[in-house]
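B., you asked whether I could sanity-check this one before it goes into the benchmark set. Here's the sequence:
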Amino acid sequence: MALSYQNIRDERTWRATTGLSSTKFHELVGHFQRVYEDFLGESIADRQRGAKDEATFTTYADLLFFLLYSIKTGSTYDVIAFNFGMDRANAFRNQSFGMSILRMTLAETGDLPKRVYESVGEFQRDMEKHQSLLLDATEQRRQRPGNQEDQKEDYSGKKKPIP
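And here's what the prediction gave me:
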């Protein structure tokens, strides 16, 4: 049995699976549909009529739920494929394709997070609109500088990783 947004019965589950309320989800479906059709020049139903295989997602809401669920849960393609009744390759293809449409949709609605700022002032002006800020502060490995003085600048004080 594949997961479906139609089985969600309460707002807590909506937020847990998509990050949105049911109202916001259904509003986003309308925008998503318009961007999808503008970008591809045909509806989801038109594309399916020309396909030789049966489509996994027959509605815009189905595809959008798949995308939001995969982002919210951070699951692997194996898990997403299992949850939605498809193979890993299709999970990857559907997510890759759908994410491009979702990015365009969020850019159009003004909900796409800004990732690059030209100046500190621009960042500060943008942050005034928000009550809180979330940062992904995951430490990333990087090449150690050859110069010992530069190494001192970058030293975090943490022990070496366990092999």
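One thing to flag: Residues 12-109 form one domain. Otherwise nothing jumped out at me.
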